[in-house]
Design brief:
- By secondary structure, the chain is an all-alpha fold.
- Helices cover 64% and strands 0% of the residues.
- The longest helix is centred in the last third of the chain and has 20 residues.
- The chain is globular and about 35 Å long.
- The two termini are 22 Å apart.
């Protein structure tokens, strides 16, 4: 469980980032630059739709740590979709995903600081571990 004050710091940062229509497209540019092996996974992607899915998924990651641990969780459907049973997203991509997300947050959150970065890392870690475990 992550302290609720910590999750609130990360959520407030995310809200500031989402005020810019360029935030999510910038994330994908950063991610695909940092992780070129992921690029083929997005070859036929409708990024207008994908940006909405990402916005929702990041919101789930930020909410996940303070939810009940019983199945199904907030991330069950997302984890199933990304698992080897569907999209088969290799867990190795989660590290570059988080680093690219934080790089993008640092570019779009005018209040970004080491405290905010730490809040993001602590808040998304449980959800990322859940996603990896469900692969």
């Amino acid at each position: 469980m992550v302290d609720k004050a910590t999750t609130l710091v990360a959520k407030a940062s995310y809200d500031r980032c989402c005020r810019s229509p360029d935030f999510l497209p910038a994330f994908y540019r950063n991610f695909l630059t940092a992780c070129p092996k992921a690029e083929p996974l997005f070859a036929r992607t409708d990024f207008t739709r994908q940006n909405k899915l990402l916005q929702h998924a990041v919101g789930l990651l930020l909410t996940f740590p303070n939810q009940p641990a019983s199945e199904p969780t907030l991330l069950t459907r997302l984890a199933d979709r990304h698992s080897r049973r569907d999209l088969n997203i290799d867990p190795v991509f989660y590290g570059p995903f988080i680093e690219s997300l934080l790089e993008t947050v640092s570019q779009f959150d005018r209040e970004f600081s080491p405290v905010i970065e730490g809040a993001w890392r602590q808040t998304v870690a449980p959800g990322v571990e859940y996603m990896k475990a469900k692969h």
